[in-house]
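Researcher: Let's do a round of design. I'm pasting the structure tokens now; please hold your answer until I've finished.
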């Protein structure tokens, strides 16, 4: 049993997988909620599809069982990391209502649903960390639904901070810059030339590694002096 637990969404790859490893190194037990199981050992896997608005009806009981099984009397510190995300190529003139709703469900509504499941069993010292994006506070073309959802995630984090006054639970939104993940590579069609061009817009002239983002998430989760903060972790982007 462990007195501290990480509950993460989308932990099967990329930033999520690296985050699991970082918290495990500090003695956290881990529950991962995702469609694809994680390959990491020592993780309780709950298979859910968060694009389905009804996922919580099936997932809540399994999640409570997992927490109570892995933590003494269910009274340990819980860190929730909302990492699962959906990125679609679309624009304000082409995005369909169905696609827009799907992105908002995964990126914004599902985190709110997960909060409602877990808050009744979260004790002082717990934390909720949202994984936003550089696009949480600015925009690029052809990412309309994603940009909108990541802006909304910042609003959800700020609302979380205010609604949890006096609980001893803190929250932040970590906004990764361009990170070398499967999602980014898929978004650019695996084109190395595009990846190199993206890296040229960073002051360090490289992409961020998932382990670096995991460390930023760990700090956001374990340092309550950061509360209600939008924490940009992007190696410094060149303004053009």
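Researcher: That's everything. Go ahead.
Model: Designed sequence:
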């Amino acid at each position: 049993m462990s007195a501290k637990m990480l509950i993460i969404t989308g932990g099967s790859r990329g930033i999520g997988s690296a985050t699991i490893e970082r918290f495990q190194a500090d003695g956290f037990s881990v529950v991962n909620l995702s469609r694809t199981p994680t390959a990491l050992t020592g993780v309780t896997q709950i298979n859910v599809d968060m694009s389905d608005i009804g996922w919580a009806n099936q997932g809540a009981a399994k999640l409570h069982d997992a927490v109570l099984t892995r933590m003494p009397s269910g009274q340990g510190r819980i860190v929730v990391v909302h990492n699962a995300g959906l990125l679609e190529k679309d624009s304000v003139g082409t995005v369909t209502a169905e696609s827009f709703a799907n992105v908002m469900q995964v990126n914004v509504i599902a985190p709110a649903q997960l909060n409602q499941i877990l808050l009744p069993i979260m004790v002082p010292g717990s934390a909720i960390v949202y994984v936003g994006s550089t696009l949480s506070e600015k925009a690029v073309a052809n990412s309309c639904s994603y940009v909108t959802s990541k802006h909304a995630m910042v609003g959800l984090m700020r609302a979380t901070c205010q609604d949890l006054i006096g609980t001893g639970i803190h929250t932040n939104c970590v906004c990764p810059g361009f990170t070398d993940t499967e999602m980014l590579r898929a978004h650019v069609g695996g084109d190395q030339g595009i990846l190199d061009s993206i890296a040229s817009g960073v002051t360090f002239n490289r992409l961020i590694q998932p382990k670096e983002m995991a460390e930023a998430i760990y700090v956001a989760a374990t340092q309550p002096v950061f509360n209600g903060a939008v924490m940009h972790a992007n190696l410094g982007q060149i303004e053009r």
